[in-house]
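agent> step 3/5: call structure_predict on target 'Mini zinc finger protein 2' (Hibiscus syriacus).
agent> reason: downstream docking stage needs a structural representation; sequence fetched in step 2, passing through unchanged.
tool.input:
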Amino acid sequence: MKRVVLRSVEPPRPVRTVRYAECQKNYAAAAGCYVFDGCREFMPSGEEGNGTLTCAACGCHRNFHRKVES
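tool.output (status=ok):
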């Protein structure tokens, strides 16, 4: 008698690309206004391999920028 082992095969997951668009940080919140920056360039900061990205134009963290998944 032979033994048969059945394995479930998961379908491949689609590849998602993530990019970060304009800055959503409100620079005039203290004055009760809305002022957003249109920056979109990120530079690594801190130690190499840290993974922290800050905006080259305004210096804010990448999390302040709108995340666009496609």
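agent> step 4/5: record observation. The two ends are 50 Å apart (CA to CA).
agent> proceeding.
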